[in-house]
Amino acid sequence: MGKRLYPLNLAKEYPLLKQHIATKTISGKKDLLQKDYGDDLDCTLTCLAFIFGADKYYDIERFAKKRAYDGKRWGTIPTTVKAIMRDCLKEFKMEGTCKSAYGKGIGWNFNKIRKLVDNGTYAVLNIWKDGRDYYFNHSVTVIGYVEYSNGQFITVYDNWNHGVSYIDYKKLSVISSINWYEKKAEGGD
Questions:
Q1: 123-129 and 176-183: which strand pairing?
Q2: Alpha-carbon torsion 171, 133, 143, 64, what sign?
Q3: Directed axis angle between helix 81-91 and helix 57-65, to 10°?
Q4: How would you class 96 by CB atoms within 10 Å of its CB: exposed for 0-12, middle for 13-18, buried for 19 or more?
């Protein structure tokens, strides 16, 4: 198993990074650890609890169980995350639209991550493989990005560790998806 990539070991693992272009992180919310909630395979639910509120975890779990979630055997099926998010919006009386994109480089790319973060929108990133042998079949919450002229990194709360972790966008498997909700604009339709 690979090592966690985090701010203190980025330069050591990537010594050839060149010109820094941008860093952006959505601040203001404390990370959550999945060990503090339901079953072992509740990484997606922990991400959703981060987005919708930790106090809503067990409601989110109830919605997920209606959509084939099993926290002891396989966790959440990535194609059901958008529907679970819609259930959350309805139950919690929130206005907005749930969206998803499947396949890195096909349905979503680093520019999409940048736009979401720049707009203050968290996303759930469902990962098959991270390309560094650290994450496998795991979900994390996207909270930012770091970009260099020769490297792009997604900043996440990974539900396993306190603090931020990075995912090397270029190494991330194409078999991945992102899910997010866009709040209804004030005074908009």
A1: antiparallel
A2: positive
A3: 130
A4: middle
| Predicted pLDDT at 94 | 94
Q: Which two tokens stand for residue 180?
A: 């997010």
pTM of the model: 0.95
Residue 77 · residue 100 · CB < 8 Å: no
Render the chain in DSSP notation, one character per residue. Answer: --PPP-HHHHHHH-TT---EEEEEE--S-----GGGSSSTT-HHHHHHHHHH-GGGHHHHHHHHHTTT-BTTTTB--GGGHHHHHHHHHHHTT--EEEEEEESBTTTB-HHHHHHHHHTT--EEEEEEE-SSSS-EEEEEEEEEEEEETTEEEEEEE-SSSSS-EEEETTTS-SSEEEEEEEEPPTT--
Low-confidence ranges of the chain (pLDDT < 70): 1, 186-189
If one counts every other C-beta atom within 10 angstroms of the C-beta of residue 169, the result is: 19
Residue 84 is predicted with a pLDDT of: 97
CA 50, distance to chain mean position in Å, is: 10
pLDDT of residue 186: 64
For residues 159 and 47, what is the distance between their CA atoms, to the nearest angstrom? 7
Q: At a CB cut-off of 8 Å and minimum separation 6, what does 165 contact?
A: 4, 5, 6, 140, 155, 156, 157, 158
Amino acid at 92: F
